[in-house]
Write a structure and sequence with these properties.
The chain is about 50% helix and about 0% strand. It has about 90 residues and is mostly helical. Helix 2 runs antiparallel to helix 3. The protein is rod-shaped, with a radius of gyration of 20 Å.
Length: about 90
Amino acid sequence: MKCKNCQSDISESDFNCPSCGKTTAQSREDLQKIDPQSTKVIAWLLLALGVAGVVFVIANSATDWYSPLNFIPPAMVLIAGGLALISALRAK
């Protein structure tokens, strides 16, 4: 794909030209495209946050406020991260 302003080569997932900085989107659909790279980064961050949450719950399992229900929020974050990673890998 070429930039209409400076004719430099740009990738399909770029919203701005790296050379001249102009917006390369042609329509509303272009602006609503999923960027696989940023989706993958967000997915890995969610997975790391979920693992950190599970570690936190396990580390505090000897306290008085421990409940098996404490694993639900980190598990939901792990599921969201897994679904986001699957979505990012399919978007390629």
